[in-house]
Write a structure and sequence with these properties.
Helix content is 34%, strand content 20%. It is α+β, with helices and mostly antiparallel strands.
Length: 452
């Protein structure tokens, strides 16, 4: 059974390949940075040699920096280990038609070692562990991600040649909820919406945001694995469509000194039979409160997974709608956690992640902490009323280095995610920090070239 009737079943896929309607099969997994990596396979080869068997790729793909350089410090991949292979395990529930590309489908994959053991450090595996934990406790998790981006009239090639300076945003003023502002960019927004619908996503809407050229396209919630799969595909395809139109978009958390781009994550639990467990009669349940208390209790410990890059922390500015206070509130956008909805719609919103987040890691962290809060019976303190920025409350770590230290030493993270995962993603932070600290920035040149 497919996720919905826009996905292809295995028999539908092979039939379309046999008739020539499909000639290219992309197999892809999500890497540490949240990017899709994989191969394009000729459809006939896919049917004869990959379907039912899978394929493989170098294990360095879970041990590189953003520039795809091999780096030291990862236990699973190195020159000493010989850079062997990982198996791409096809998830045949994810066969999508990509209508912006001719005769092409995509299949998302899990990763396993040659002996069939799952790769514990793979983002999809990390989330899968938490989904299994929730199921053991009698719960299923559903989520939705709200991902913002900034669109530019410059192509990616032109932006590169300009060294990413003086680019032309698709809008020249704040277009938050503006119909005129979104109409200006509608050729891009419309194609993304329609291609994503064809690919199996349930599209809700597109709206303008505050920064120049900033927009958000929203999708209906789903089970957490489907939501994260959709998120990864959307982020990739949106860039591809922008490139096809001679434009570019960025999912940087903080492109410039104006508003950053967020990825608010809405999450709730259901019973495994679909029963509502966060709401009873006309009030929150104790289980809901304990889940939220657990997420708040682990907010500092897990910030590295919500804000994984140096740039992520530039977004944490007071009064910017990016939260800094570890607090919760009823429909209060100044808090790290905002509770919204009632009844079946009751859910928590984590406002800490930016648009650069890896959704699998962030949702896994939320589930790990929330389920821990339920198991420990944590009590939820009083809500924050008014402006949480000025409430004098504890804040999330404000730099990548601080978040790295908290994550690496966290008993909670090691107990819920495992030492292998914590050590792997600590090293990812170390690689990012080393690269940044070795870089001479434009800011330094402007301040120091003549005056120092």
């Amino acid at each position: 059974m497919t996720r919905n009737d826009r996905y292809l079943s295995e028999s539908e896929l092979t039939n379309r390949i046999a008739t020539g309607e499909i000639d290219t099969v992309i197999v892809a997994f999500t890497d540490m940075q949240g990017r899709l990596q994989g191969k394009r396979l000729h459809a006939a080869y896919f049917v004869d040699h990959v379907l039912g068997h899978g394929t493989e790729g170098c294990n360095y793909l879970l041990g590189v920096d953003i520039d795809m350089n091999t780096v030291d410090g990862y236990a699973i991949t190195s020159w000493e280990r010989g850079y062997g292979d990982m198996e791409f395990v096809l998830d045949m529930d994810t066969v999508r038609i990509l209508t912006h590309l001719p005769a092409t489908v995509m299949i998302q994959c899990d990763l396993a070692w040659p002996d069939g053991t799952p790769v514990a450090q793979s983002p999809r595996s990390i989330l899968g562990q938490q989904v299994a934990k929730a199921a053991e406790m009698g719960y299923a998790a559903v989520a939705g991600t709200e991902l913002e981006f900034i669109a530019f009239d410059d192509s990616y090639e032109a932006a590169h040649r300009a060294d990413y300076r003086a680019l032309t945003p698709a809008n020249q003023y704040n277009v938050d909820y503006s119909i005129v502002g979104t109409t200006r960019v509608e050729p891009l927004l419309r194609q993304i919406r329609n291609v994503m619908y064809d690919a199996g996503l349930d599209v809700e809407s597109a709206k303008g945001e505050c920064n120049f050229g900033q927009h958000e396209i929203g999708f209906l919630f789903a089970d957490v694995v489907t939501t994260c799969d959709n998120h990864a595909v959307y982020k990739t395809v949106a860039k591809e469509i922008a490139a096809q139109q001679g434009r570019s978009i960025t999912f940087m958390a903080k492109w410039d000194e104006r508003e950053g781009s967020s990825c608010h994550i809405h999450l709730s639990l259901r019973g495994t039979d679909g029963e509502i467990v966060f709401w009873d009669d006309d009030a929150r349940t104790p289980l809901y409160d304990s889940f939220v208390a657990g997420v708040l209790d682990g907010m500092s410990d897990m910030t590295l997974l919500y804000a994984p890059n140096v740039n992520s922390y530039k977004r944490f500015a007071d009064g910017s709608f990016a939260p800094t206070a570890i607090a919760w509130g009823e429909d209060n956008r100044t808090c790290a956690v905002r509770l919204v909805g009632r009844g079946a719609g009751a859910r928590m919103e984590n406002r800490v992640p930016g648009a650069d987040v890896n959704p699998y890691l962030a949702v896994a962290a939320m589930l790990a902490c929330g389920l821990d809060g339920i198991e420990r019976g944590l009590e939820l303190g009083p809500p924050t009323e008014g402006n949480a920025y000025t409430a004098g409350l504890p804040t999330v770590p404000r730099t990548l280095r601080a978040a790295r230290e908290v994550f690496h030493s966290s008993e909670l993270a090691r107990r819920t995610l495992g030492d292998e995962v914590v050590d792997h993603y600590t090293n990812m932070a170390d690689v990012e920090l080393a690269a940044f600290e070795a870089t001479v920035t434009d800011w330094e040149r402007r301040r120091g070239f003549e005056r120092m």
